[in-house]
Write a structure and sequence with these properties.
The structure is a single chain. Helix content is 19%, strand content 30%. It is α+β, with helices and mostly antiparallel strands and 761 residues long. It has 3 domains: 321 residues, Beta-galactosidase, Chain A, domain 5 (Distorted Sandwich); 309 residues, TIM Barrel (Alpha-Beta Barrel), CATH 3.20.20; 107 residues, Immunoglobulin-like (Sandwich), CATH 2.60.40.1180. Strands 2, 7, 8, 9, 10, 12, 13, 15, 16, 20 and 21 form an 11-stranded mixed β-sheet that branches. Helix 5 runs parallel beside helix 6. It is globular and about 80 Å long. The termini are far apart. Bound molecules: alpha-D-galactopyranose. The site of alpha-D-galactopyranose (GLA) has 12 residues, from loops.
Length: 761
């Protein structure tokens, strides 16, 4: 078969990608000849090449470092390949049965086999609004596939960004048959990855121990990572993975492919390694108990997968995700985040007017900018005294707060801080007025009693039901219409789907619950953002249970974990940073002994860890000594200096806590490489301990940087304090830092950490 690389003529198209689907794109549609054509789309540094020919299966050719036209023309010919099958979107049943397939459906006539062959393709310039509302531009490759036996179409999309190394891929399944078809498998995308010494980095977790890094060599067989929680799809395993293509993962060297599925519900990732030369990565909605009936004329759109390639190791791939996230995913990612105090670990449910006022005054006195009142402020007939009642009854508990939210806003103003509030809008308790009124609004198996969650009474509202969607929207709408001064909302979700059943969906459509719930949730989030584009909203789900790129476009940040223990946070924040930027990672200074691990860590170390993310506090300041408050005041003031570097800068992970040698280190460097901040944490102490010197990364080798330690507690300055080093020296040698703090004898302890600010002259 003859192959030629087709140079695309591109025409500008200004419309939203969501609408692109079946519009005649006017452009460039090619009638594909019998010859295979290699189609390339690229980002600044990445190329993706596919091979298409009329009535043939679409094939993968290449994904990696951007190719020159010359190299494109000499790429191997996959249609002749005897080394691999390289399907781009294999469908089940006609020719593929033994290996994993991207799509499986039962046609109107009961036929379970599908054969997806190329009909057409087009490459269009796009310029539209990204999910976070920002303008973006890029190229969209649309490949239209069809089964010779059936009229239905599958549109496969690859959208390449012009200014960031990210290609998003997804598909539309358009039912043009005479009746309803049944979808039984519906991955968004398949990406072949050349075998070799490939390692995959993925994340496992649980409540209070999210994003624990797992690194393993890819081997024969199937590796399946999936979530079945129903609501909180990032609590256990995460839907983002990185492939290190050249042996064991390295932070700042080597080729890496990153793949982030962008879904808020149950997902499935399968890496299928058969006897060919490729690993096949599949990602999409988890089909378990989720068969989808697609009516005549309807289109099923799968979630996106965002791919990146970097030859600068895992940290390089992370930086690509961070840039993409800050530019196009997260809300307000160009605005510095406020330093806040959250009331939860300080007072738990013990909310009252005086207490809130005191906390506001305290955070203001330490230099904070925002106070967030957490759980426990609501409920009339059933006041929220603990976690066993009141969710759904979003009215102020007048006993606790006689002056209502008005009083809180007044005190916030008086204290010079902004005010934020906690809600858990998708939930109810069986002890609530809402449940008494609308028992039919909750998720529960037909004919059975509801299974009850937190507090022995928590139930989940059924967001597949439009009335419930309205109810959830109205919670936010009522708060923000009545109190437009509310600057911040913490949106929590503390339950999974505990038994299966929708009282809203028809009996034939019960299997739509997991999917329709999330369609409903996204609709509500979109409505909220359409009306309230400015309010800052935190995405929380029993901690980091909803750190995902389906929801983040509607939110500004997420709560990394309910575990605020600084030592465990180093591991969790390390894992979280693979895909999410520091500006999104809420990281709070809390009390000792820690409320989750009961570990006692000195305040200096707690500050140093929290300062590597979006800094906040979660503590009762009333219980802090003056010396502790002074240290926090210093930390907050120092953080304000480095806030733009942490929140908008580029991350270089330097030394992994997972290396097992008692050290972790990372740094952020500003875009212009004029400023950087370096973090160093000792994880355990031994006598006669030897730790490596950490080489820095990301600096300009020719610039000279002056070193200044932040959050300093030592009685004598570091040897490097105030000295100036070349970026070259710092990246080849690093700085010597003492393994312990030089403090008065009785102030010594077994913890040591450093935050070092570097400024180019
Ligand atoms: C969840 C959140 C916490 C806190 C509590 C309140 O556990 O993750 O931060 O808001 O709920 O009940």
């Amino acid at each position: 078969m003859k192959t030629k690389y087709m140079k695309q003529q591109l025409t500008f198209l200004s419309q939203s990608v969501g609408k692109v689907t079946s519009l005649a794109l006017l452009l460039l549609s090619s009638s594909i000849p019998g010859n295979a054509e290699k189609i390339e789309i690229h980002t600044p540094n990445n190329s993706l090449v596919v091979d298409l020919w009329k009535d043939g299966e679409p094939k993968f050719v290449y994904y990696g470092q951007r190719l020159s036209t010359y190299d494109l023309n000499v790429l191997p010919e996959p249609t002749n390949a005897n080394w691999s099958h390289l399907e781009l979107f294999p469908a089940y049943g006609a020719t593929h049965t033994m290996s994993e397939t991207a799509l499986a459906m039962t046609h109107v006539d009961g036929n379970m086999s599908t054969n997806l062959l190329v009909q057409d393709y087009k490459v269009t310039d796009i310029s539209d609004k990204a999910p976070n509302g920002k303008e973006r531009s890029g190229k969209l490759l649309t490949i239209t596939l069809k089964d010779p036996l059936y009229p239905s179409l599958v549109h496969l999309y690859y959208q390449a960004y012009n200014d960031v190394d990210m290609i998003e891929c997804w598909s539309d399944i358009e039912n043009l048959e005479k009746g309803t078809v049944k979808l039984t498998q519906f991955y968004s995308s398949c990406m072949p990855i050349r075998r070799g010494d490939v390692y995959v980095s993925h994340f496992h977790g649980s409540w209070a121990a999210e994003a624990q890094l797992v690194e393993e060599k890819l081997n024969n067989g199937m590796l399946v990572i999936k979530n079945k929680d129903g609501l909180r799809n990032a609590t256990t395993d995460r839907q983002e993975v990185m492939f290190s293509l050249e042996g064991k993962a390295q932070e700042n060297a080597g080729d890496v492919i990153g793949a982030a599925l962008m879904y808020s519900g149950n997902y499935q990732i399968t890496i299928d390694t058969d006897d060919s030369e490729y690993h096949y990565y599949f990602a999409g909605i988890n089909p378990d108990n989720s068969e989808y009936l697609l009516k005549k004329g309807e289109t099923f759109t799968t979630p996106h997968v965002a791919y990146t390639f970097s030859n600068e190791g895992l940290s390089g791939a992370s930086r690509n995700y961070h840039t993409w996230a800050r530019n196009y995913q997260l809300r307000h990612a160009d605005k510095q985040r406020d330093i806040l105090l959250n009331s939860w670990e300080g007072v738990y449910f013990d909310i009252n007017q005086k207490g809130m006022d005191q906390m506001m005054a305290d955070i203001a006195s330490m230099g904070g900018e925002l106070f967030v009142m957490d759980d426990g402020w609501f409920g009339d007939k059933y006041p929220r005294k603990t976690d066993n009642s009141s969710l759904g009854d979003w009215v102020v508990d007048k006993n606790k707060l006689p002056e209502g939210i008005e009083g809180l806003l007044r005190d916030a103003k008086k204290n010079g801080v902004k005010f934020g509030i906690w809600i858990e809008p998708e939930m109810s308790n069986t002890t609530s007025e809402l449940y008494e009124k609308h028992p039919d609004w909750i998720i529960k198996a037909p004919g059975r009693k509801p299974v009850l969650g937190r507090g022995g009474t928590q139930v989940v509202l059924d967001l597949s039901n439009p009335k419930v969607q309205d109810f959830v929207f109205n919670i936010v709408d009522n708060l923000l219409t009545k109190y437009p001064e509310i600057a911040y909302i913490k949106w929590d979700a503390n339950a999974p789907v505990m038994n299966h059943g929708s009282q809203y969906l028809s009996k034939n459509e019960q299997s739509h619950l997991y999917i329709d719930y999330h369609k409903g949730l996204i609709k509500v989030c979109q409505r909220i953002r359409d009306k309230y584009p400015d309010v800052i909203i935190q995405d929380c789900a029993s901690g980091g249970g909803r750190a995902n790129y389906a929801l983040l476009p509607y939110f500004d940040e997420f709560w990394v974990s309910d575990d605020t223990d600084a030592l465990q946070r180093i591991y969790m924040q390390w894992g979280t940073s693979y895909f999410f930027p520091a500006i999104a990672m809420a990281s709070h200074i809390s009390a000792t002994p820690n409320h989750q691990t009961f570990r006692t860590i000195p305040l200096k170390f707690r500050c140093d860890v929290a300062m590597s993310g979006r800094l906040g506090m979660e503590i009762q300041p009333k219980n802090m000594t003056e010396a502790e408050k002074t240290l926090c005041r210093q930390a907050i003031s120092d953080y304000k200096k480095i806030r733009p570097i942490v929140q908008f800068g580029n991350l270089y992970r330097l030394h992994s806590p997972y290396a097992g040698d008692n050290l972790a280190s990372l740094m952020y460097v500003s875009d212009n490489k004029q400023e950087a901040v370096f973090y160093w944490y000792k994880l355990e102490t031994f006598v006669n301990q030897h730790l490596p010197r950490i080489k820095m990364a990301g600096l300009d080798p020719s610039k000279k940087y002056t070193v200044h330690e932040l959050n300093k507690i030592d009685t004598t300055p570091l040897d490097c304090e105030g000295k100036t080093y070349t970026g070259d020296y710092l990246m080849k040698n690093g700085l010597e830092v003492p393994f312990k703090h030089i403090v008065n004898y009785h102030d010594q302890n077994d913890w040591a950490s450093r935050v070092i600010y570097l400024k180019a002259n």
